[in-house]
Design a protein that fits this description.
This protein has 378 residues and is α/β, with parallel strands linked by helices. It contains 15 helices and twelve strands. The chain is globular, with a radius of gyration of 21 Å. It starts with a helix and ends with a helix. It binds pyridoxal-5'-phosphate (PLP).
Length: 378
């Protein structure tokens, strides 16, 4: 019988209790004595702290296998590199997380992989970008920072019917809101730095999918050297167990805050998939269990108002990254997307004064009151 995610988070994958210990101890050792098993070494991703996480994370998305990595970018790059070789063509959604976009534009291009950035919400245009040597398609479940939800069902169908490997960055949704591997994506990738860990004290990543594909990424990772260390495994393991509790609160508080912002006269636009005004609200409602904790908005007062807003807010911290228990605010052009040129930013629809909020798990009314006060001063 398969359990609900709340139960899986606590018990799934916890096969062996070491000397009766309720918590998996930290195995602070780089290597293990020779035995009949393959060599055990942290970089090979087969130590007890890694394996318990791999088992649990696979179950959370209803997948065969998973691989924890030393960062979200280690997960993304090791998975992408397992899908293409020189001379291949790669399809990437327009407006991706800046680090991913940079990798695709720079390193992947250096490997002689050609890339087309395509509109993942317009299936009628996809055949035109498909080439004889296209191997893979890459999208995000909820894009950063515009929180768009592209046509995920059609992406799966298009990939399957054209023999492409589908990859999705599922960081913003988390397995609580969307089980991307179970929905049909070949690779579901996460920056576990964000919601999976949830406490802003670890940098980690995850590759989830079919065993054969995850093992391909694991081989790359072993060569690239992006393994997760035992201490970080322990912290991720601990943080992960409250994912469901945290996500329910992120979902509820972000919904309340986005409704407040949407109706405020000084706010030009509010982007949140849980708002009925969001262009893909119906799809997000159908596919997701919740809409997540990420929202972005623009003020009518432009860049000056945006900077004043950041200064005047008392609760959200002015900081990059996302997915922790504390609310954060940033301007994507100076953080997640700072590596993009003005032309690339414009093509992605990310304006200078766009503000992005990672809504934490503080009391919703306290947060709204804080935003209301700050808006009075802009
Ligand atoms: N994917 C998304 C959507 C992100 O926002 C980030 C980081 O901000 C990453 C991937 C990269 O993750 P990491 O910083 O853990 O390497």
């Amino acid at each position: 019988m398969s359990h609900a995610i709340d139960t899986q988070l606590i018990h799934a994958g916890e096969e062996s209790r070491i000397d009766g210990a309720i918590r998996m101890p930290i195995f602070q050792t780089a290597m293990f004595e020779h035995d009949d098993a393959p060599l055990r070494y942290i970089r090979y991703n087969n130590t007890p702290n890694q394996r318990v996480l791999n088992r649990k994370l696979a179950i959370l998305e209803g997948a065969e296998d998973a691989l924890v990595t030393g960062s979200g970018m280690a997960a993304i790059t090791s998975a992408i590199l397992s899908t293409v070789k020189p001379g291949d063509h790669f399809l990437a959604q327009k407006s991706l997380y800046g680090g991913t976009q940079k990798f695709i534009l720079n390193l992947l291009a250096d490997l002689n992989v050609t890339v087309s950035f395509f509109d993942a919400d317009a299936p009628e245009t996809w055949n035109a970008v498909l080439k004889r040597n296209t191997r893979a398609v890459y999208v995000e479940s909820i894009t950063n920072p515009l929180v768009q939800v592209c046509d995920l069902e059609q992406i799966i169908e298009f990939s399957q019917s054209n023999n492409l490997i589908s990859l999705i960055d599922n960081t913003f949704a988390s397995p609580y809101n969307y089980q991307a591997a179970n929905a049909g994506f070949d690779y579901s990738l996460h920056s576990a730095t964000k919601y999976l860990n949830g406490h802003s004290d670890v940098v980690a990543g995850v590759v989830i999918g079919k065993e054969e594909l995850v093992q391909k990424a694991a081989k790359n990772l072993a060569q690239l050297g992006g393994a997760l260390d035992p201490n970080s495994c322990f912290l991720l393991h601990r943080g992960l167990q409250t994912l469901a509790l945290r996500m329910r609160q992120h979902n509820a508080t972000a919904q309340s805050l986005s409704e407040f912002l949407y109706s405020h006269p000084k706010v030009l636009c509010t982007n949140y998939p849980g708002l009925s005004s969001h262009p893909q609200h119906e799809r997000a409602t159908r596919l997701f269990h919740g809409f997540g904790g990420m929202l972005s908005f623009e003020l009518k007062g432009g860049i000056e108002a945006a900077n004043n807003m950041i200064t005047n807010l008392q609760i959200p911290v002015f900081a990059p990254s996302l997915g922790g228990v504390e609310s954060l605010i940033t301007r994507p052009v100076i953080s997640s997307h700072s590596g993009l040129t003005p032309d690339e930013l414009e093509a992605s629809g990310i304006r200078d004064h766009l503000l992005r909020v990672s809504v934490g798990i503080e009391d919703a009314q306290d947060l709204i009151a804080d935003f209301e006060k700050a808006l009075q001063k802009v």
